[in-house]
Amino acid sequence: MASIREVAKLAGVSPATVSRVMNGTAKVDDEKRERVLQAISDTGFVPNAVARSLFKKSARIIGLIIPSITNPFFTQMASAIEKAADEQGYRLIFCNTGTDLEKEKASLTMLESMNADGIILTTSHEEIESYVNQCKVPVIVTDRLFKENKDYNHVHCDHYTGGRLAMEHLLDCGCKKIVCVKGPQQISSAKARYDGYRDVCEEKQVQEYTIDCDYDFNEGLVMTEQLLNQYPDVDGIIACNDMVALSIYKILRKNNIEVPEQIQLIGFDGIYLSNLLTPELTTIAQPIEEIGRKAAELIIHKEENDMGEKEYIFKPALVVRQTTKKKGEGE
Q1: Cβ–Cβ under 8 Å, residues 208 and 198
Q2: CA triplet 200, 209, 219: central angle to 5 degrees?
Q3: 244 pLDDT exceeds 80?
Q4: How far is the C-alpha of 182 from the C-alpha of 212, rounded, in Å?
Q5: What average pLDDT does the segment 47-54 reach?
Q6: How far is it, in rounded angstroms, from Cα 240 to Cα 220?
Q7: Residue 45 pLDDT > 90, yes or no?
Q8: Nearest partner of 168 among 151, 180, 155, judged by Cα
Q9: DSSP assignment letter at 47
């Protein structure tokens, strides 16, 4: 591979002039510029992007670390991040960890070594916080909340209010025995959703019923069979996310249980799949695209945001569709 010095020699200019042409950092007369471009073409010279990024202190790269590429919530968020990045001339490096802590650590190390301008992280592990503390590039934490260190930018939905909205809606629909499917409680978003459900139960003096499940479609299939055995008279189910809600619906139909006539069902997230189901899924929708865009903007405009807010909280919205029905509707 040709070097910048070889390009300069062929074009009859200095290496500094070649650098100016490539980077557009200073005016170069047209005749010299044409010679440099022709020499670059003739030699097949490719500038070292890593070296240039170190010199400029910016690789124009945003790293994204997510726990599951199979969950449409994260792919929708990634799409919004990529669009915001592309608009400003940044590239997105995408890391799927499969909820593996060691992969999260390795991804942080790799992105830091690439001189990324910042990293957007959605973690499944509290233990990663101490590792993030050592990171030399900005880290934006999305859909989660670190307990100890508030110095990071956190961008997330108000999951607690979402949990309340889900419970209040099923009560309004006349449900008497409502089961909350709890996501992994070491994850801040799952815990906050359950806390919202629990507090409404206490305030309304309603019995609490729960069952545990990972944020996973296949886990949801197994869990739903257990739920029906444990709570045979259930008439309302709050799923920990939309993917689990879809698996719950599949098992209910397998058991010839009508939705919403016999059991009413509500999900959480508002992924695009939630309105492709028949009947369409009632859900607590997060503003996924807004969350992704804000996380990207905090990195792209990091100099402006250094003295700004550290936590950005978005409001969830109840989206009523066909898997729930208020008393009197359709009768």
Answers
A1: yes
A2: 115
A3: yes
A4: 5
A5: 53
A6: 10
A7: no
A8: 180
A9: -
The contacts of residue 104 (CB under 8 Å, 6+ apart) are 65, 97, 121, 123, 124, 125, 128, 131
pTM given for the model:
0.81
Domains of the chain plus CATH, in order, are 4-44 (no CATH), 57-158+288-314 (3.40.50.2300), 159-287 (3.40.50.2300)
Burial class (CB in 10 A: 0-12, 13-18, 19+), 53: middle
Distance of CA 129 to CAs 36, 81, 94, 126, Å? 48, 22, 20, 6
Query: Which residues, in sequence order, are CB contacts of 284 under 8 Å at separation 6+?
Result: 162, 163, 165, 166, 266, 267, 268, 269, 270, 316, 317, 318, 319
Element (H, E) at 268: strand 264-269
Higher pLDDT, 195 or 149: 195
pLDDT digits over 209-233, tens only?
A: 999 999 999 999 999 999 999 999 9
Q: What's the CA dihedral at 164, 123, 319, 323 to 10 degrees? A: -90
If DSSP codes are grouped into helix, strand and coil, which group holds residue 58? coil
- Strands of 135-219 (E only): list them: 139-142, 153-157, 178-182, 209-212
Bridge partners of residue 139, in order along the sequence? 119
**Terminal-to-terminal C-alpha distance of the chain:** 76
